[in-house]
Amino acid sequence: MAEPARPLFFQTAEQRTALARQRFFDEGERPTGLVNEAVIQSWMRCTAARRDARQAVSFDPVTRSRMHACLTRNQQLLAAGNEDLQQLAAALLGTSCRVLLTDGQGVVIHASAPLGTAPQPLLDAGSRVGVNLAEGEIGTTAPGIVARVASACTVHGAEHFHEMLQTLHCAAAPIRDVHGRLAGVLDLSIEGSPFGFDAAGLVALYASTIENRLLRLQSPAHLVLQFQASPRVLGTPLEGLAGVDVNGQLAWLNPVAQRLTGANALAHPPVDEVFGLAFGDLLALHRAREPQALRLPNGLTVWVRAHIGSADGVDFNRAVATGAPSVQADEVTPQAPSTDVAPSSTLDDHRDRVITETLAACGGNIARAARQLGVSRGLLYRRLRAPPGAAPASADAH
After folding, report:
1. Is the Cβ–Cβ distance between 129 and 109 less than 8 Å?
2. Which of 24, 27, 152, 367 has the fewest other C-beta atoms within 10 Å?
3. Averaged pLDDT, 104-123
4. What distances in angstroms separate CA 31 from CA 35, 39, 41, 70, one per listed residue?
5. Does the pTM of the predicted model rise above 0.70?
């Protein structure tokens, strides 16, 4: 008796996933086009590792010493995400979702409290600090895939490799550090029903916000540039961010900045090749009260703000403003002349100059200049006694 013909089209994602599982697990075929390619790749890795889809999995925490090491190593990531994780949890109060933050290896370092009254036995087990959600531990999940491949991913229901996890739905996005490495994974998970909103879009938005905060935290000695084609989106997850080191070379770019400039931060090119301005001109932008228009070498005009990190405790952005002239978009060229800083100067030279100018503007009053810079008088004395371009031996930001 002939087998019934397979339908050519499926009306629901659940039907397509069921067919994908049948082809992959029962028939040994690759279900291309039926489920996300990232899911297929994860299934293949799990199969190669001789995992059994029918086997039960447990959400086991790592050892106490490893958990302590994870929390210690990821203090900056937790600090960067603290405010946004609270905001995200508040936004999800009317849902049954959990918010998870893992380190780059998939170990949970933050988990939101359970919401609602519906039982969630799997999320109760998995949403604990120290639990290892890596693909090698519990098979195909969104946070496990992102921890493995560092790309955003959503896994719905039966797309999970293990059958016992098919009541879960999860969406996760990567968070990268200043070296371009995976620093952590932000995940939204729900049990028992699909998401009632665009979970992938929401988790990507908050992951970008946390990543931008982390990049700033990891750049105390960098000139940080905020830029976008519209000045209205500066300070939002849509802004481009770039870090420039003390020698005027590009240290890092966030994904938005990579798309706007087309530059490769890993090559650490001179900043003038990326932004069309000498380092000194970019340094001068931090004194401007409003975003400045800048035409990039690729022809795109963006609006830029500059912020100098406070590696030695001095907040140079609180120094007395010099009233840098506003620049109009049609006036900006890659060869724009310097306004405040010699193009050959370094970031440390500029820090010394700002201290000197602030002290002069305060009539030589150390106490007043220290208040203006947001530091103690002792730190300012040490900075003034230090050789030009050298940071003091100790930093006291009080």
Report:
1. yes
2. 27
3. 90
4. 7, 10, 11, 37
5. yes
